[in-house]
Structures are given as C-alpha cells and as structure tokens.
Design goal:
Elements (H helix, E strand, L loop, with lengths): L1 H17 L6 E7 L5 H16 L4 E7 L25 E3 L10 H9 L6 H18 L8 H22 L3 E8 L2 H8 L11 H19 L9 H4 L3 H14 L1 H6 L5 H14 L7 H11 L9 E7 L2 H18 L1 H11 L1 H6 L9 H6 L4 H25 L8 E5 L1 H8 L3 H21 L13 H4 L5 E4 L5 E4 L1 H8 L2 H14 L14
Parallel strand pairs: 1-4, 1-5, 2-3, 2-4, 5-6
Antiparallel strand pairs: 7-8
Length: about 500
C-alpha cells in the first residue's frame, strides 16, 4: 500500500509538471476555527467557475480537517451543510463512520481472569498482541489513509480534466488541522510505515496526540497520564537523561515538554550511541529532505487570520447558531449511542463538546465557548509556524487579514462586511490562486537551516541566565524592549553610571 502511495504521488508530481500550461492548482486555505475558511473556499470556487467557465475548468473542495472527515457530529464539528455547497464538489467530508467497540472492550474485560495485577496485564497484552498479529487488521482511517485518499482524488480530477479536454483544474483544500495539511503538502512529512506491532502502536499514539492538539486544549490526555503526573523534578531528570544521550535534542526541548522529551528519549535509547539514529540527526535530516508534494507553480497556500478579540465575537455568534441548530441534543445522542467511543477521546470523540458534556452537561455551552477560543488562538500560532517552516519555504503563500470583516459583523454592518469580504478577501484569494507562478523571495526563508536553527540552546546573561531554544526565540528575546533595557542598565552599572545623581541635582 505504501509503494502504491509513492507511485501515485510520483505520477501526480509528474503530471503537474508536464501539463503546467493547463493552470493546475492545489490551493490550501488554512487558519483558525471560525476565521471564514469554509465560506472562502466555496466563494473562491464559485468565482473561479463563473470566471473561467465550467466547461473550461473544474473546481473541487477537499477537506483538511481531522474531525470533519467523520460522519457523526456535523453540527459540533461545523461541517459544511449541503445547502451551503452551492453546487461545488466536496470530497472527504463525513466519509468515516463511527465504530463502537464497546462490546469488544467488555468482552476483553470479562476474559481478564484472576491473578495479580502485573500477571493480568501481561496476559491481556499477550492475548491482544496475538489477536492483532494473527487476525487480519481492518484498515484504519488514519492520516496515511487520508493522504492516500487525497492523492487518489487529485489523480482522478486530473484524469477527468484530460478526458474532457478542460484547460485546467483547481483543488481547494480547506481545514484547521495542521497535521493533515502537512501530510498532503509535504512528501516526507510522514515517517516510513511501521513494520512491527510496537512501532504501529507508537505511531497511532502520536497521531491521536497530533489530532487532539487541534481539538483539545487540555494537556492531560488520557493516553499520557503517566507523563503528565510526573513531578517537576522527575521531568527535569528525564530531560537531563536526554541531554546525556543527545545534547542537541535536549537543547531543542524544554523540560516541561514531557511528552516530546519522553518520545525523543525513547528514540535516543534505541539508538544505543549510534549518532545517525539519534533523534536530532533523524529529525534534522527529515527537515532538510522535506519537499512539497506538488511543484511550487501548482501549489498555493492562503492563511486566513483575524485578531483574537474580533474572532472571538464571531465564535460566540457561531456557538449560538449551533445551539439553535441543536448541538446539545446532537452531542447527547452521540454519547448515549456510542458511550465507549465518547469516553475514548479518540477520533470524532475529540470534537469540542463531547468531553464537556461528559464532565458537566449543565455548563456545556459555556465550556465549549471557552475551549473553542483557546483552540482558535493556538491554531493561529500553529499555522503561522507551519507556513514559515523550512518544508514550506518554496510554496507561494499569502496571509489575508479578515479582522475588519469580523469587526463589521460584530456591529451588524452586514452590507459593509459583505463588500469587504468580496473585494478584499475573495478577490485577492482568487487572483492569487489563478495568477501564473512568480517566484517570490520571502524574508528569512532562503536558508532556513542556517538562519532558523531550532537545535541550539542559549542563555541570556543579562536576564539572569534565562534559557532560549532556537534562533527564533533568541531573536525575539534580544529584540524585545525588556532585554534591551536590562542590557543598558547592566552596562551603566558596570561603568559606574547607574545610581548616581543627575547633574542638575548635584549641590553647587
């Protein structure tokens, strides 16, 4: 299956290069939840079809949201409704059904047997391992399946374009999951397919954690309780152990980032002193080798942003609309129908509202609002960092600020907001997608390995030996007013100037 995926990616890249004159585009619209990505994708697709003609060009919207691929909870996950699609083809929305494993879990508990705790755990693990190795595994709808499905969709669109003699095609990918965006935009983002049960389980855990970061703000996930419960001293000890095995990795990670420290430490211990197998070597090599899935003249990246205050008012209005649409009853029905899935905190159960309902159904909407606002702030940072990363340095990208539109909507200036949306956002995004590729030099991106080294640790003497990890944090700190004031005061103190009276205050 992995070999077939590589062949499909290779064919897609070759086709995009061979028929570049046909104006093929893979455009990714990313941004925080509630910023307007879904509406922008539909408006842009509609405008392209009207401008170029449906006989000449096709426009398809593909989902990039880890939760909207599921069929359950369409209101809670803010999935596009059928009447909103306006005739534009949509792919990978609501295609994954909920699988309730409650009966299987109960059967395993009944088969647990007696004996000590350790003995029971060993027996359960052995039985589970044997069942998974001997029994044919059902294909999981994970991120690998998602990328394979995406490439298959793109390949079919391009084949249809050739068969119908169209002049071009536009695939608009839209969603709020950076993990999925990277998976479909970078060739080498995903590691090689695991070959053993342990490696497969490790990767499943990492994917759940990555997708949970887009739907969850709580750092105490169920599958990481052992790490989260570590004391500060235990976390520092784990970090120091990593420093002994791989100093570069320790320089990159903060001791409080216990999950990543544990993961890096596991890799470093397996390396057994082999430098080529250390996490710092492996991940730096992966960063250098990361390439775009499609040529730069085919790809476009649009980051839709809005200031927090303006966006949060929009999120409040969206939640009120969800309430009118019946989100409370939808979540209640889901929890009652799939109790095991709801408590698993995996897949669609990570949607905002499920855990809040389980914790306290009375304060569901209030807790959903607070968690959604935290998610929006985090997504904005994640996508900004993603676009500025080395893997995306050659992808044409723009950032469109929709703050003014959200402010107008908050004050009920509907006509003005619609005009701003059409003229300043939809028009700009459409022109950026359709314009011929022009290589744009982006600041601080030409040599990411040299100018943005994330594997270096520095201490600021002027600020009490405060530790900074990576060039980006160090540059931000040394450029801050607080640091400059400390350096100036320290220099004056050393020169004997600080603390002396002003010349005008000296008695004559």
């Amino acid at each position: 299956m992995e070999e077939e995926e590589r062949k499909r990616a290779k064919r897609a890249a070759a086709a995009s290069s061979e028929f570049s004159d046909k104006r093929r585009r893979i455009a990714c619209i990313v941004g925080a939840t509630g910023s307007g990505k879904t509406k922008l994708s539909i408006d842009v697709a509609t405008r392209i079809l009207e401008r170029e003609g449906e006989k000449n060009v096709s426009a398809t919207i593909v989902n990039l949201d880890a939760l909207q691929v599921h069929g359950a909870l369409p209101i809670a996950t803010a999935r596009v409704r059928e009447e909103e699609k306006r005739g534009v083809a949509h792919e990978l929305f609501g295609v994954v059904d909920v699988v309730d494993e409650e009966e299987e879990e109960e059967k395993e508990e009944e088969d647990g047997g007696g004996g000590g705790v350790l003995e029971v755990e060993e027996e359960e693990f052995a039985r589970r391992r044997k069942r998974r190795l001997l029994k044919p595994r059902r294909r999981t709808k994970d991120v690998r399946w998602f990328r394979e499905s995406f490439l298959e969709i793109v390949e079919k669109i391009w084949e249809e374009e050739e068969r119908c003699g169209k002049k071009g095609s536009v695939v608009i990918c839209v969603g709020g999951t950076p993990y999925y965006a990277k998976a479909v935009m970078l060739k080498t983002f995903l590691p090689p397919k695991p070959t053993s049960l342990e490696e497969e389980e490790e990767e499943e855990g990492e994917e759940n954690e990555a997708s949970a970061s887009d739907a969850s703000d709580d750092e105490n996930e169920n599958n990481n309780e052992d790490v989260d419960k570590l004391s500060a001293d235990e976390k520092r000890a784990m970090h120091e152990r990593l420093r002994e095995l791989d100093p570069k990795s320790a320089a990159r990670l903060h001791p409080k980032d216990a999950r990543r420290v544990r993961r890096y430490l596991q890799i470093a211990e397996k390396a057994n002193g082999e430098e080529s197998l250390l996490p710092s070597t492996l991940f730096q090599r992966q960063q250098r080798e990361e390439q775009l899935m499609f040529p730069p003249h085919v790809m476009r990246v649009i980051h839709l942003v809005a200031e927090n205050d303006a966006l949060e008012k929009t999120l409040e209005r969206r939640l009120e609309q969800m309430r009118r649409d019946g989100v409370e009853n939808e979540i209640k029905t889901f929890v009652e129908t799939y109790p095991t899935v709801a408590k698993s905190n995996k897949g669609v159960a990570q949607a905002i509202g499920v855990r809040e309902f389980l914790d306290d159904a009375e304060t569901l909407l209030e807790n959903m609002s607070a968690r959604t606002k935290r998610l929006a702030r985090r997504q904005r940072r994640q996508f900004a960092n993603m676009i500025e990363s080395s893997g995306f340095c050659s992808a044409p990208a723009i950032t469109i600020d929709a703050t003014k539109m959200h402010e107008m909507l908050a004050t009920s200036q509907l006509s003005s907001s619609n005009m701003f949306w059409e003229d300043e956002i939809v028009h700009r995004a459409t022109e950026f997608i359709l314009d011929e590729f022009v290589e744009v030099q982006r600041s601080n991106r030409d040599a990411p390995d040299e100018n943005n080294n994330a594997w270096i640790e520095r201490a600021c003497e002027a600020c009490g030996d405060r530790i900074f990890r990576g060039d980006r944090d160090w540059l931000a700190h040394t450029s801050s007013k607080r640091h400059k004031n400390r350096v100036r005061n320290l220099r004056k103190s050393r020169e004997g100037q600080r603390g002396s009276l002003h010349p005008n205050k000296i008695a004559k």
